[in-house]
Structures are given as C-alpha cells and as structure tokens.
Amino acid sequence: MKQQRESKSAPRTPSNTAREGFGSQRPSRRVVEGHTRPCEECGDVKWDMDVSRGEITCGSCGLVVEENVPDPGAEWTNRDQGEDRSRVGRPMTYTLADKGLNTTIDVRDLNTGSASRHGMSSQARREWRRRRVIDERSKTRKSRERNLVKANQFIRDRSGLPQPLQEEAARLYRMLSTAGFVTGRSIAGVTAACTYLVARQEELPRQIPDISKAFDITEKDLSRLIRQVSRRLNLHKITGPNEYFDKFISDLSLSPNIRAPLEELWSMIQPHEEVWQGKKPMGVAAALIYKTSNQIGSPRTQSEVCTVANVSEVTLRGLLRLIDGLIEKIKAREALE
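Above: the chain sequence. Below: its structure as tokens.
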C-alpha cells in the first residue's frame, strides 16, 4: 500500500520529454479534419490541404494521402460579371418575363405522387392549386408583362434557335417593347423578325418562308417587319450565298467532296458584286450548287434544288445564265493576259 501511494504521488513525465524516434521534442501537430493520425511514411502529424488541387499532403515528406477533396468554402459565383457574387438562384434570363428572378409554385409539386410524398391531403392540394393560379395572375397583371410572357413563349417554342440565340432574340424584343415599337403590331410578327435578325447576325441560315410558317404569319408581313426592326435596331447585314451552302448540301444529300469546288466557284464569283448582290442569296447558292453538282458527276435536278432553296426554276435558270456569262468573260480575259 505504501508503495502504491508513493507511485501515485510521483510527479508525471512532462509532455515534451524526449521519446524514442521523435528527437528531443514532440512535433507540432497540424491536423485537418479527418486526418489526425501520424503519417505512414515519416510518422509526423503535419497535414497540409491544397484547396485548389483538392489534395491533402504531409507537410514533412510530401505524401499525398487524399485526392479530390470537396472545397469546404462558400461557392461564390458571379453570374452577371458584376461585383455582386450571389450564392443562390439561377442566372437571369431574358426568355422569361421576370428574368427568372421571381419564385414560382411548381405544378409538378402539386400532383398526386409528389403531394402524397410531401404529406399533403387532397384538400391542401386544391388550396395550393388555387394559390398557384392567383400567384400567376398577380405576376401578369400589367399588359406589358402579359406581352412579354406571350412573346417569350413564341421564341422558346417556335424559333428553333439554340439557347444563347433565344436569349438574344428575347433581349431584342424587350428593347422594342420598352421603346413602344410593339404597340399596334403583331407579337408573333415582331418575335419572328427578331428571330430572323438574330439568326442572320450569327450566320445561321434561316429562310423567311420557314420562319413565317413557324410563327403563322405571312411572308409579306414578316419581310416588312424585318426591315422596320433592322432599321430601328441598326442590324443591317448582307447575307451571302455561302451561308446557305452547308444547309443545301445536307438537304440535297450531296457528298462533302462538293465543298472544295463549290468554294472555288464562289471565290471566282464573289468579287463581281453586280452579279449576285440584289439577288436572293438562296437562289445564288442554289445556282452554284446546281452547277457544281453537275461538274463533279453527282447531278441534282432543277426541281430538287429549287424545292430546297425555295426559289422558282425560272429564277434558277436566270441566275445560271448570269453566272455562265460571267465565267466566260473571266476565262476570255485570262486568255488575253
């Protein structure tokens, strides 16, 4: 008993006393979450975390013990290229009347399956459906909001443009609506004109007959609105026949080998603007493709080419005469030189 008391009253060994394998002092313990044990290579507890690389390494020997570590920091995002770095919400979009900033009651959460999973009774579902209707009506109380809702719906459903170009078309329509240009004009017509102009600016081939059919307006009204909107927004651009080459080649199921001689023929015609400017670019493209397809031994009939280009056979034959006459003049000039 006496020995036990003496052993209990004996002073404890200090924590910094030398230990075998660690030198005169114990190493400093720099640990990270989930890594508190010593390193398997050197026995040190000195962990470093590289947030940019997502790695946890030993500070003494450099051993990588974990990869692809999630960043515990805040997910700061900059959606509008401004100073505000928001962590919530989707980016703003012009394809929605409220730019996607308002909250909505999703109808999918109120159907039978989702509502039952949320523990909602049938009476609660009816009440929330009524609240959803009231919420939607309150957001489109003004005529301008209703106008934008309809126009954006046209652009999303009928334009056939990629998402970035839909955003641009919706932005142009919003500018026209703010300036009062849409008042007294057809919503479908103005949205169709914006769709055509955006596609033309991005060299994406869209023909007036196709767009007028998609938006259910006449070609004459669409052409007039295109001229008015282009003057209003200063979006004048000459469409070249070469912008329709890929589309017509695909529609006619021609071989890609036609591309090189077609470009060569177009490079010969392009400097002579008096021949092709002022003509329908679809017609000029159709004439060049028709002529080139006959030269490479993969001919297409005039009817097939005219159906794809949406021009008459009379127009096609007239353009072919102009192109043939120009080529003869160029060859005669080269022979004299």
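The first helix runs from residue 2 to 9.
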